[in-house]
Design brief:
Elements: E1 8-9, E2 13-14, H1 20-30, E3 34-39, E4 42-48, H2 49-55, H3 65-72, E5 88-89, H4 94-104, E6 108-112, E7 118-123, H5 124-134, E8 142-150, H6 155-165, E9 170-177, E10 182-190, H7 195-204, E11 208-215
Parallel strand pairs: 2-3, 5-6
Antiparallel strand pairs: 1-7, 3-4, 6-7, 8-10, 8-11, 9-10
Length: 216
């Protein structure tokens, strides 16, 4: 799964000479929390609603609305934008984008092509939506089993064979490393699967089921 298929294409942007008031209206119109700054097709910075709040007059100000508008019209986007922009390539995987966002503590990334052109933006919401879809949650009720297993060759093959031998299709399968010796395996199945029979077989084969629940 790649960034290009999950990003918002042709993101709304402003130029660095736009006024704070123009930028604020645009952000409120589209319900954005952050916006890209692009001059002549080149990404030159970004800013957030917090940056606008930082330079805007306090709600307790004695200035009139006209004076506030006049003040904001004198401040341009280049005065508040951050010039160091962390980006991700459109060919990157969703995991890479999520890791970059996590490591840099940002809620969104501009997406660029191989030649550096901005082709989209991907946000934490896009990552969360992808995670939910990977889990198969929108497709209806599922049974979720969590197994604790040893970190050794053949475990996954053995477990998937148990399900296959009992005619149960695995909807999704995720491994979560706990330490050098143990893993948690999260298996999601169609809710109408004969789960109880398989649970007994897994226990007989020495696998520990630490959690089971119906979700969706």
């Amino acid at each position: 799964m790649f960034v290009a298929s999950r990003m918002t294409k042709h993101p709304v942007s402003v130029t660095s000479d736009a006024t704070i008031q123009q930028a604020d209206r645009l952000m409120k119109k589209h319900k954005f929390h952050r916006m890209l700054v692009i001059d002549n097709g080149k990404l030159v910075g970004y800013f957030s609603d917090r940056d606008i709040m930082r330079v805007a007059p306090s709600p307790a100000t004695t200035l009139s609305k006209f004076e506030i508008r006049s003040l904001l019209d004198k401040i341009s986007v280049r005065d508040i934008m951050h010039e160091k922009v962390i980006t991700v390539n459109e060919d990157a995987t969703i995991e890479e984008a999520a890791l970059i966002m996590y490591q840099n503590k940002v809620g969104g990334l501009p997406v660029v092509s191989d030649v550096g052109a901005v082709v989209g933006i991907i946000t934490a919401t896009d990552i969360l939506k992808t995670f939910i879809e990977v889990m198969g949650l929108p497709s209806g009720y599922k049974t979720r089993l969590t197994l604790e297993v040893d970190n050794k060759v053949g475990v996954i093959a053995d477990i998937t064979k148990i399900f296959a031998d009992n005619g149960i299709n695995i909807d999704s399968f995720i491994t979560c490393r706990q330490n050098d010796k143990r893993y948690e395996l999260v298996v999601r199945l169609d809710d109408n699967a004969a789960v109880e029979d398989v649970k007994k077989i897994l226990l007989q084969r020495g696998y520990k089921i630490i959690h089971a629940v119906h979700i969706g």
